[in-house]
Design goal:
With 534 residues, the chain is α/β, with parallel strands linked by helices. It contains 19 helices and eleven strands. Helix 4 crosses helix 5, helix 16 packs parallel to helix 19 and helix 18 packs antiparallel against helix 19.
Length: 534
């Protein structure tokens, strides 16, 4: 049945068109837009002029920041990410925090903010009492590798659960560690040093900027814990519950409706991670003057961080001038929809995952590349590591995503390889031309595909800002994919080397060069390499 519009609807549409006409009449964008069009019930269609677009293209070509301005109000941002546990190998569960955190550091520094990374290592407490006591029982060997330590930790845990005598000795070893016992500290330092060698190897493979100087493990905050609790007590924010000192931030309850506590000192006088997290806020805002605190940690910790932030505001460590954000993220799933693990159900070691990515990429590169063996190895590393990073960063970080080798290494679709190949193609065209695109070259937008590409290229600043504003790298990744797609359409429809005139050829070479600049910069902000040849 045909829907008929009543008189009131027709009157409303007429009024809307009148409003649109009034807006159009007041516009003064002669140099920016062509004559606006009113469509339908009152939509206003705006079209940028070719003159304005070509001026933007020519300006971008000579701008090393491609139109992305630095902030006029830089912030001092402390960002917590990666945070593996000492004496354990990094596994696939660390990959999202590490990759997302590194991308945010790159984006925020490019934005002009002062960014202080801190790697909150798990390096203190009962687990190390267990492990050190077990190593003493076994006869410690300084040549132990991280794999050995991983196995020793599992053995120590079994002994701790099954042997009351060992459990008591492990607890006493924790006391010795916390009191600075020389023998215990020596062994603990060996554990930390071997673990750091492993972490740095992984970070180097991934292209992550964390260094040993960025380590702020749980041990770092240990000297601040007593003062943190004392200050909370002095401010009247604590209560005793079952012998433990607790803070009860307002608005947090369990399923039974009882208030939820942050236990800041246990009944036995010890401290846990809740104490450490409060001391962390106090340290970074009070001692280091951070204006922003970012925690790149999985979504299951959302309530915990909300409670820590609430308690910190009550304590005055977070003021209205501070910005504290839990940059949460979902899980990595296998193609079966379950948590991503090996076929035997074991946790996947991160270094094994990276090795496999490089190995798979090497087969892809060998199949398509004419480079020599050494250069193919470099490209395989860039493609393989880029595939893992982009698969993560191109997904909305709050959602789970499915890990698929086939999809992430595909050279078509929204993958790092597609973007890397698009960039390499732009540079290949320029090399074959025998010319170097020059600043000041007039840009001609003769075809729709040229204009569409130009419109895409000028949106880089908005894409970068959007990724920064929401701590959402996937918005930049989406923009880069759209840019590569626009370039592919341009390449297919607009001959460059066989352009109809020298002027058009020079213009299209500029569009190729600008596309490469945008893709290279954008990928670098995500921590992904853009090889010049593939």
């Amino acid at each position: 049945m045909q829907r008929r519009h009543g008189p009131w609807q027709e009157g409303r549409q007429a009024a809307e068109r009148e409003v649109a006409a009034a807006i159009v009449g007041a516009l003064d964008g002669t140099d920016l837009i062509v004559e606006p069009e009113i469509a339908g019930p009152g939509f206003i269609n705006l079209t940028l002029t070719d003159t304005w677009l070509t001026t933007q293209m020519e300006g971008l070509f000579s701008d090393p920041r491609l139109g992305v301005e630095k902030t006029e109000h830089p912030r001092r941002i402390a960002i917590d990410y990666s945070s593996p546990n000492v004496a354990k190998e990094m596994h696939v569960g660390h990959v999202r925090s590490t990759i997302i955190g590194d991308a945010l550091v790159r984006l925020l520094r490019f934005h002009g903010d002062e960014v202080i990374p801190h790697n909150h290592l798990g390096d203190w407490g009962t687990p190390f009492g267990m492990l050190i006591e077990h190593l003493i029982d076994q006869g410690f060997n300084a040549e132990h590798s991280i794999s050995d330590l991983n196995g020793f930790y599992q053995e120590a845990r079994k002994k701790f659960d099954a042997d009351p005598d060992f459990a008591e000795r492990a607890r006493l070893r924790v006391v010795k560690l916390q009191s600075g016992d020389e023998e215990t500290l020596l062994l603990w330092n060996e554990l930390v040093d071997e673990s750091m060698r492993h972490f740095m190897k992984v970070y180097q493979m991934l292209g992550i900027g964390l260094t040993p100087e960025d380590n702020y493990g749980e041990s770092f905050y240990n000297p601040f814990l007593a003062d943190t609790v004392d200050e909370l007590e002095q401010k009247g924010l604590t209560e005793i519950s079952d012998g433990a000192v607790c803070v009860f931030p307002k608005g947090f309850f369990n399923r039974d409706g009882d208030p939820l506590p942050l236990i800041i000192r246990k009944s036995d006088g010890g401290y846990g991670y809740m104490s450490t997290d409060l001391a962390t806020v106090r340290y970074w805002t009070g001692e280091r003057g951070a204006t922003d605190l970012l925690y790149v940690v999985g979504t299951p910790q959302s309530q915990h961080f909300a409670m820590v932030f609430a308690a910190s505001r009550d304590a005055g460590w977070l003021t209205p001038d501070h910005n504290a954000v839990h940059v949460n993220f979902g899980s990595i799933l296998g193609e079966d929809g379950k948590m991503f693990r090996t076929r035997s159900g074991d946790t996947i070691k991160l270094i094994d995952l990276l090795d496999e990515a490089i190995h798979r990429a090497a087969a892809l590169v060998q199949e398509r590349s004419e480079l020599d063996e050494a250069d193919q190895a470099k490209v395989a590393r860039a493609v393989g590591i880029g595939a893992i990073k982009y698969a993560d960063l191109s997904s909305d970080r709050e959602k789970d995503y499915v890990f698929s080798w086939e999809k992430m290494l595909a050279t078509d679709g929204n993958t790092a390889a597609y973007l890397q190949y698009a960039n390499a193609r732009t540079l290949s065209i320029i090399r074959k031309s025998g010319q170097t695109p020059q600043p000041g070259t007039p840009v001609i937008l003769a075809e729709k595909a040229e204009r569409d590409l130009a419109l895409q290229l000028i949106q880089l600043p908005a894409a970068v800002q959007s990724a920064i504003d929401g701590y959402t790298p996937h918005k930049l990744a989406t923009y880069l994919f759209d840019t590569a797609t626009a370039f592919t359409a341009f390449f297919e429809k607009c001959p460059v080397l066989k352009a109809e005139s020298d002027e058009l050829r020079a213009s299209r070479l500029v569009l190729c060069a600008l596309t490469s600049k945008v893709l290279t910069m954008g990928l670098d902000l995500l921590g992904i390499e853009a090889p010049t040849r593939l």
